[in-house]
Amino acid sequence: MANKELKVTLVKSLIGRLKSHQACVRGLGLRRTNHTVTVTDTPENRGMINKVSYMLSVEEI
Question: The CATH number of the domain where 38 resides is what?
Fold first, then answer.
């Protein structure tokens, strides 16, 4: 199984969000709106992405 990667972009602000949702975004390495990071496609990262999917844009690499 090849290590797949995901390109994750924060498209909505963290202001006024639940603390647990802010923690998931920080855990993915995102810092500010329109910031993009590349993360490995693991169940842990997928879980964080699914929890805050309404704030993110995700594409597979």
Answer: 3.30.1390.20
Q: pTM (2 decimals)?
A: 0.90
Number of domains in the chain: 1
Q: Which of 11, 43, 51, 44 is nearest to 30 (CA)?
A: 11
Measured on CA atoms in the order 39, 42, 44, 47, is the torsion positive or negative? positive
The rounded distance, in Å, linking the Cα atoms of 9 and 11 is: 6
Residue 35: which domain range? 5-60
Does residue 1 carry a pLDDT above 60? no
> Which residue type sits at 57?
S
3-state SS, residue 52: coil
pLDDT, tens only, 17-48: 999 999 999 999 999 999 999 999 999 999 99
